[in-house]
Design brief:
CATH class: Alpha Beta
CATH superfamily: PPM-type phosphatase domain
Helix content: 10-25%
Radius of gyration: 15 Å
Number of domains: 1
Bound molecules: manganese (II) ion
Oligomer: single chain
């Protein structure tokens, strides 16, 4: 991640928390940039960090209520369940999500139009199967949405994230990329 040039704080935040079989991966983009965006992102991050194991749609609703006193945020959440090799993801706003797999077409998250804290639309969580090596990528709009058009998901997750940020990061906004690779062997 990197903040917009001239800002000391980023309004983009990532959450990665595990408990038992479930890992929650989320990316939050506080509306705009600077300290007020960072405050909104922090409020949502605290809820998500304590929310592992809760249903992803319910987590967005909790964030929506808590963010009403802030300028609001875009949020994408993926709950990865190693118990049944699945991932359930849901999004509101403009944090992009991709699930990249070697021999399968890349899947994209379908974000609901709206802003958590401002307008909460109907949410449609979607559950996908995971395989060993499935790679989840969440990226804020500080990254060009075409980032996955010619995506090489090779290398470590850190290398993939660095490459996306380096090649597709915009200079006009905070930018954050979270890359998570699933390593559990299917039963
Ligand atoms: Mn942004």
């Amino acid at each position: 991640m990197r903040p917009l040039s001239g800002e000391t704080e980023s309004g983009d935040k990532a959450v990665l928390e595990s408990s038992a079989d479930v890992t929650l991966a989320a990316v939050i983009d506080g509306l705009g940039h600077g300290p007020e965006a960072a405050t909104a992102a922090r409020v949502a991050a605290e809820i998500l960090e304590a929310g592992t194991g809760q249903e992803v749609g319910a987590l967005i609703e909790r964030c929506h209520r808590a963010l009403k006193q802030t300028r609001g945020a875009s949020i994408s959440i993926a709950a990865i369940d190693a118990g049944d090799n699945s991932m359930t993801w849901v999004a509101i706003g403009n944090v992009e999500g991709r699930l990249v797999e070697r021999q399968w077409p890349t899947r994209s998250i379908f974000p609901a139009a709206g802003v958590a804290g401002v307008e909460l639309p109907q949410l449609r969580p979607e559950t996908l199967d995971l395989r060993r090596g499935s790679t989840l990528i969440l990226a804020t709009d500080g990254v060009q949405s075409g980032f996955s058009d010619s995506l090489a998901a090779s290398g470590s997750p850190q290398q993939v994230a660095d490459r996306i940020l380096g090649e597709h990061g915009r200079s006009t906004d905070d930018a954050l990329v979270l890359v998570v690779r699933y390593l559990r062997v299917a039963k």
